[in-house]
Sequence to fold (103 residues):
Amino acid sequence: MSYVDTQIASLKEIRDSGKRFTQQQRILLVLLQNPKGLIRDELAEITKLRLSSVCGRVNELLEAGTIELGPKCYNRHTDRFVYSVRPVIPEEQTGQLDLPFNG
Fold:
């Protein structure tokens, strides 16, 4: 099986198992706890998800308009500046977030 075939099979397995939604929830909860934003490497560290999974879920959340690109931040892993991502919070709800988080 080629690399591409393996990637496609993995994506189908994630989609079919419902893990994609759970991963999105985990990422969104972490971002809501850090509304100024985080970079993808930080999200991977905090959520204990693989960086490739974080990138995939972040792209889906960006497309859905649930999160947005934030300012560029220094990434110590790559020694370059990358865009952070942050949750989109309606203005009328700013400061009213009361989320449980089990870390």
In short: Residues 82 and 91 are 26 Å apart (CA to CA). The radius of gyration is 15 Å. The longest strand covers residues 67-75. The mean pLDDT is 82.
